[in-house]
Design goal:
- By secondary structure, this protein is mainly beta.
- The chain has a domain at about 5-25 and about 45-105 and about 130-145: Pnp Oxidase, Chain A (Roll), CATH 2.30.110.
- It has helices spanning about 45-55, 65-70; strands at about 5, 10-15, 20-25, 25-30, 35-40, 55-60, 90, 95-100, 105-115, 120-130, 140, 145.
- The radius of gyration is 14 Å and the shape is globular.
- The structure holds flavin mononucleotide.
- Flavin mononucleotide (FMN) binds next to β3, β5 and α1.
Length: about 150
């Protein structure tokens, strides 16, 4: 899979008064009509537990300057303190936090899930979306963060 270049997103949700985010590259468009997206989430993650409870999530697509954010939301050390800093996010219609630095975001309700191996494919029905910036994307390739050149 290292030979496959992907974009980098932060999946976010909120459940039982707790906001949570995690770095996700297994994100794709699933359907145009209706508008569906999918993510593949490891079942052992906090995110899996929380999104199965809340049934809502957001996908924040990262721009090329957001490598630090991608590293932060993939590191368990973030769980020791607040994951979201006031002024760096706002709450979407879904209740999920949206990162102000994201180049675009989509919000979704869980449409369906498929358990496959140690991950679940979570299909989301898009409820809101916004393109916020034309900044070029952050890319993940061969276990490293890259930019388009
Ligand atoms: C670039 C990158 C992409 C990732 N993509 C995914 C993914 O698509 N699905 C997934 O379950 N974990 C993915 N991870 C791993 C999670 O971000 C990581 O395990 C995270 O700490 C889990 O958070 P949680 O258990 O606190 O919810 C990725 C990590 C990195 C660095």
């Amino acid at each position: 899979m290292g030979q496959f270049a992907s974009g980098v997103t932060i999946m976010t949700t909120t459940a039982a008064g707790r906001m949570h985010g995690m770095t996700v590259s297994a994100f794709a468009s699933q359907s145009l009509d209706p508008l569906l997206i999918l993510v593949s989430v490891e079942r052992s993650t906090e995110m899996h537990k929380l999104v199965m409870a809340s049934r809502v999530f957001a996908i924040n697509i990262l721009g090329e300057h957001a490598e630090g954010t991608a590293r932060f939301f993939a590191d368990n050390a973030r769980l020791k303190g607040p994951e979201f800093v006031a002024g760096a996010y706002h709450v979407g219609v879904s209740g999920a936090p949206l990162l102000n630095e994201a180049v675009a975001y989509l919000e979704a309700t869980v449409h369906s899930t498929l358990e496959a191996g140690d991950h679940s494919v979570i299909v989301g029905q898009v409820t809101a979306l916004e393109v916020r910036s034309e900044v070029e994307p952050l890319v993940y390739y061969r276990s490293g963060y890259r930019r388009l050149d």
